[in-house]
Amino acid sequence: MNPLVAPESQPRDARTALSVNLNKVALLRNTRHLGIPSVIRAAEQVLNAGAQGITVHPRPDERHIRAEDVHALAEFLKAWPQAEYNIEGNPFHNLIGFIEAVRPHQATFVPDNVEQFTSDHGWNLPADLERLVPVIQQTKALGVRVSLFMDPIPEAMAHAAQAGADRVELYTEAYARAFGTADEDAVLAQYVRAAEAALAAGLGINAGHDLNRDNLTRFLREVPGVAEVSIGHALIADALELGYTETVRDYQRCIQRAFAPEAAAR
Ligand SMILES: CC(=O)[C@@H](O)[C@H](O)COP(=O)(O)O
Ligand SMILES: NCC(=O)COP(=O)(O)O
């Protein structure tokens, strides 16, 4: 699947794109002044291994991805025209400056506060609708697709479409926490309902947060129409053990298994 193709034109059973979030590579690098591990080298390796895109979340405190990384990745990705560049952040803090300067394929708007430990909630719609409309219009006018980070609330999806978003990113921590517990089926059903509502509203669907090699396949098998998953923390942790190449291939097998069980069994 080409992640640059508009989600609405993708068939429901199209393979989900894997965007690798490199925040945690930068986090480790930032503990010394040696430039290792290299975010660019990581991007090169995960793309060579078959990832379809790169995600970064340049937080205002630069705890991991720094402004210079956002620009260096944009330069590097010019040599990878099929790869999608996804930049996450709060459009009312520092995100829009990056979007204007870099014009990635996708901007994911996340309602984090400045010192947030990690993302832990989606936009509150319709309450946030009015203030989101101008920044969505501004971003789309730059030719950048807009995705809104959302809790799996079916009723909110029509409001995301009304705000002008192209996609929603379903915030998957609740599913990841429930995975392997008695709550798994019920929580997953909530994501299915949210995805159905998003599709009915004409939105594309992304998903992310705490997805991993254990929970990914079932999520993609059950939740309809997921165009892209962005995965960082668990994938980079796996890569410390397996290396980037084997790790990305394994995540791709998890995705493949969701769509073609017999092929992934080989
Ligand atoms: C938007 C989102 O889902 C986050 O997962 C985020 O990109 C992770 O941020 P940290 O790496 O700073 O925890
Ligand atoms: N948008 C989610 C993301 O980019 C990565 O989240 P995580 O895998 O680091 O939890």
UniProtKB/TrEMBL annotation:
<dbReference type="GO" id="GO:0005829">
    <property type="term" value="C:cytosol"/>
</dbReference>
<comment type="pathway">
    <text>Cofactor biosynthesis; pyridoxine 5'-phosphate biosynthesis; pyridoxine 5'-phosphate from D-erythrose 4-phosphate: step 5/5.</text>
</comment>
<comment type="subunit">
    <text>Homooctamer; tetramer of dimers.</text>
</comment>
<feature type="binding site">
    <location>
        <position position="210"/>
    </location>
    <ligand>
        <name>3-amino-2-oxopropyl phosphate</name>
    </ligand>
</feature>
<dbReference type="InterPro" id="IPR013785">
    <property type="entry name" value="Aldolase_TIM"/>
</dbReference>
<dbReference type="Pfam" id="PF03740">
    <property type="entry name" value="PdxJ"/>
</dbReference>
<dbReference type="GO" id="GO:0008615">
    <property type="term" value="P:pyridoxine biosynthetic process"/>
</dbReference>
<feature type="active site" description="Proton acceptor">
    <location>
        <position position="88"/>
    </location>
</feature>
<feature type="active site" description="Proton acceptor">
    <location>
        <position position="57"/>
    </location>
</feature>
<dbReference type="InterPro" id="IPR004569">
    <property type="entry name" value="PyrdxlP_synth_PdxJ"/>
</dbReference>
<keyword id="KW-0808">Transferase</keyword>
<comment type="function">
    <text>Catalyzes the complicated ring closure reaction between the two acyclic compounds 1-deoxy-D-xylulose-5-phosphate (DXP) and 3-amino-2-oxopropyl phosphate (1-amino-acetone-3-phosphate or AAP) to form pyridoxine 5'-phosphate (PNP) and inorganic phosphate.</text>
</comment>
<feature type="binding site">
    <location>
        <position position="21"/>
    </location>
    <ligand>
        <name>3-amino-2-oxopropyl phosphate</name>
    </ligand>
</feature>
<dbReference type="GO" id="GO:0033856">
    <property type="term" value="F:pyridoxine 5'-phosphate synthase activity"/>
</dbReference>
<feature type="active site" description="Proton donor">
    <location>
        <position position="209"/>
    </location>
</feature>
<feature type="binding site">
    <location>
        <position position="118"/>
    </location>
    <ligand>
        <name>1-deoxy-D-xylulose 5-phosphate</name>
    </ligand>
</feature>
<dbReference type="InterPro" id="IPR036130">
    <property type="entry name" value="Pyridoxine-5'_phos_synth"/>
</dbReference>
<keyword id="KW-0664">Pyridoxine biosynthesis</keyword>
<feature type="binding site">
    <location>
        <position position="32"/>
    </location>
    <ligand>
        <name>3-amino-2-oxopropyl phosphate</name>
    </ligand>
</feature>
<feature type="binding site">
    <location>
        <position position="64"/>
    </location>
    <ligand>
        <name>1-deoxy-D-xylulose 5-phosphate</name>
    </ligand>
</feature>
<comment type="similarity">
    <text>Belongs to the PNP synthase family.</text>
</comment>
<feature type="binding site">
    <location>
        <position position="59"/>
    </location>
    <ligand>
        <name>1-deoxy-D-xylulose 5-phosphate</name>
    </ligand>
</feature>
<protein>
    <recommendedName>
        <fullName>Pyridoxine 5'-phosphate synthase</fullName>
        <ecNumber>2.6.99.2</ecNumber>
    </recommendedName>
</protein>
<feature type="binding site">
    <location>
        <begin position="232"/>
        <end position="233"/>
    </location>
    <ligand>
        <name>3-amino-2-oxopropyl phosphate</name>
    </ligand>
</feature>
<feature type="site" description="Transition state stabilizer">
    <location>
        <position position="169"/>
    </location>
</feature>
<keyword id="KW-0963">Cytoplasm</keyword>
